[in-house]
Amino acid sequence: MSKLQIAVALYEGMTLLDAAGPIEVLRFLPDARLELVSAATGPVRSDARTDLVATTTYDECTSPDVVVVPGGPGTGEALGGPLIGWLRQVHPTTTWTTSVCSGSLLLAHAGLLEGAPAASHFAVLDLLPQLGATPSHERVVVDEAHHVMTAAGVSSGIDMALVLAERLSDATTAQAIQLVTEYDPHPPHDSGSLAKASADVVRRAVELGRPHGAIPEFWEPPA
Amino acid sequence: MSKLQIAVALYEGMTLLDAAGPIEVLRFLPDARLELVSAATGPVRSDARTDLVATTTYDECTSPDVVVVPGGPGTGEALGGPLIGWLRQVHPTTTWTTSVCSGSLLLAHAGLLEGAPAASHFAVLDLLPQLGATPSHERVVVDEAHHVMTAAGVSSGIDMALVLAERLSDATTAQAIQLVTEYDPHPPHDSGSLAKASADVVRRAVELGRPHGAIPEFWEPPA
User: Which of A8, A67, A120, B102 has the smallest count of CB within 10 Å of its CB?
Assistant: First the structure.
């Protein structure tokens, strides 16, 4: 029996953890093969001080069972790149097409989220309606009808990948991966969503995030 | 004023998320410069299907303010490598020397945890006493006396990095980074620590983790 093929798409300016979180979880799935796919094999620059390395190309990866699309400040440029055509080509035969963070804008731009509920990073969530999708404030949105899963910002890809791992295997396997990666979160504060962060924290997030492209220039905190 | 220098050590067989979690958090610190340091610059193989890329060498990085040491199946081999000598050399002048997962075995082997409480991945925690450290089941251990922080397995590096971010700046900044990375965890199950996982889940974790070196051969589930 051929292995389940899981393709994580890489593009210049993707956010490191958007990709690394799901890679870390999904690589433990039994009978699965993880591929990092891009226009060419070799290093692809993330928005942190490191590359990730593509193991295969869009041309070679024609029928993945699962697709994971990270977000990041490179999303805008990726809208005009080969990833979009590849998503349109492979999505009809995937079991799940998924995204983390602003990666859902790429799925939507490819026409995969027409009439679909979708999550995204809080700072780009309002862009979804003009691309045909319905913004959701959930951390992980599972849309059976479109065989699509979308996650909120950055670290939420870990939660999504655990949901995905359960769908692709079973609950015990997903829980076991959670144990191996010791995902028993205890953040020191509870400020990880826009609904929970104080106005001061939101202002500071804008100051820190904008220079890195993690918060777009157009985004303003809610009044 | 010179920037705070944060050095994340890379070595063959490190676990991807052990490094990527803290990198993602710490890169947002203002007035800080993140370096990925190894024996040589260039790609360093992680245990996932990708490299991370060292930006500087141990020889060039002589007085980092903060050191982060990931864990992973490569820990054993790293015990005999140049990382250990470098840790001994730079630790006396760091503000914080930190580790994620089995990275604490490297700190201990370098003699940095003599008489110190320390966290580690649950499957190697019992190795700490023979290296002079006292195992802790906490997710993040802050040891002021030794200016050391250690974290439990893999994903706990995110929590540790947020604690570290607060120490290096202030609570608002740490909370803002938590917001930018949307770290508002909602794992689908609650099995992320040995104390919480069922016996079935622990057995499955061993099955899945061993082939990847994430659970060492010698480790057996508690009776």
Answer: A67
